[in-house]
Write a structure and sequence with these properties.
TIM Barrel; two-stranded antiparallel ribbon; binds NADP nicotinamide-adenine-dinucleotide phosphate; NAD(P)_OxRdtase_dom_sf; oxidoreductase activity; Putative aldo/keto reductase; AKR
């Protein structure tokens, strides 16, 4: 533990409150997503590695004790930057990683859901992060490249990770990009402590899953929480993969609430998530220290009932 222990309790990220993953790994509900740390397109090294390392260190200084990552960010780059920034890790730092895809030289993200591929990915994450076990591993369901669709069983890949958990390489399991049926199937195989699906103030297709998770004590960690990217778009024909498209989080109500609260629209989007359900934990991604400060400060932003009502009324991207 660092000498800043006394400060952590009052650190900005702590203002969002806590959630105990699996009833035991206590995280501040405002975390950090590492996907923006590598170079453009989540590929290769960042232009300024020292800056990326500084962003990760600053996140922890601000009280973030939960970082979401994956070995396929870069590939390898995000984990290497986290390790350079924070190893040896504080006891209270929770690293959540994910497996289920790989990167090709064309910068595509095909599925890698076969048991042997998952085993290799777990070992790659252990090596990349410099750990002897992983706190939480999410199984990311990927359709591209011969993967699994929403109607498919995830029993084989989730079962493979459950075996690695039994062997002590993984402490807890999560699932990502799943349907309600796939979540139920996974829970029948091994305990699930978190779900990571696309969700934000404008895109709430998974409202039922958020509720199911809340009832079961499972964390819901939305990806694209700022809505600046979306997977709802056409496929890249050349690589047969979905490439996230930049879609600004635009809605009059968000801007109106932001003006009233003296906050930014990004902070309003994060504060809405935190107030929407007590099991939602945020992992906004950024490569910028300024954006990081802004995002973490949203942990302390309290929306009024009127604000929430206006934001709740936004459905499916209606402005
Ligand atoms: N399981 C999955 O399939 C999956 C998929 C996608 C992501 N994830 C995880 O979820 C995390 C969050 O998703 P994400 O990073 O893709 O999307 P996001 O958090 O919704 O948005 C990130 C984008 O917003 C920009 N941004 C961040 N804070 C900002 C601010 N205060 N003002 C203006 N722009 C801001 C970032 O650019 P700058 O770098 O310039 O700030 C970046 O372009 C990822 O980091 C990753 O860990 C998981």
């Amino acid at each position: 533990m660092s000498s800043d222990d006394a400060v952590v309790g009052t650190a900005p990220a702590a203002a969002a409150g806590e959630f105990a993953l699996g009833g035991e790994l206590v995280i501040h509900r405002m975390g950090f997503g590492a996907m923006q740390l590598p170079g453009p397109g989540v590929w290769g090294p960042p232009k300024d590695r020292a800056r990326a390392v500084g962003v990760v260190r600053r996140a922890v200084e601000l009280g973030v004790n939960h970082i979401d990552t994956s070995d396929y960010y870069g590939p390898y780059v995000a984990n290497e930057i986290i390790r350079e920034a924070l190893h040896p890790y504080d006891d209270d730092l929770i690293l959540v990683t994910k497996v289920g895809a790989l990167r090709t030289p064309e910068k595509a993200w095909p599925a890698a859901l076969k048991p042997e591929q998952l085993r290799r990915a777990v070992y790659d994450n252990l090596r990349g992060l410099g750990r002897d076990h992983l706190d939480v591993v999410n199984l990311r369901i990927v359709e591209e490249g011969g993967g699994l669709g929403p109607e498919d069983s995830i029993a084989e890949p989730f079962g493979a990770l459950a075996e690695l958990r039994e062997q002590g390489l993984i402490r807890h399991l999560g699932v990502s990009n799943v349907t309600a049926g796939q979540l139920a199937e996974a829970r029948g195989i091994a305990p699930v402590v978190c779900v990571q699906n696309e969700y934000n103030v404008l895109r709430r297709r998974d409202e039922d899953i958020v509720r199911t998770c809340a009832e079961a004590g499972i964390a819901f960690m939305p990806f694209f929480p700022l809505g600046t990217f979306t997977l709802q778009h056409e496929k890249d024909v050349a690589t047969d993969t979905k490439v996230p498209q930049q879609v600004p989080l635009e809605a009059q109500a968000i801007h109106a609430v932001a003006r009233r609260r003296g906050a930014t629209p990004y902070q309003v989007a994060l504060a809405w998530l935190l107030q929407h359900s007590a099991n939602i934990c945020c992992i906004p991604g950024t490569s910028s220290a300024d954006h990081l400060e802004e995002n973490v400060a949203a942990a302390a932003l309290r929306l009024t009932e009127v604000d929430v009502k206006e934001l709740d009324a936004l459905h499916g991207g209606a402005a």
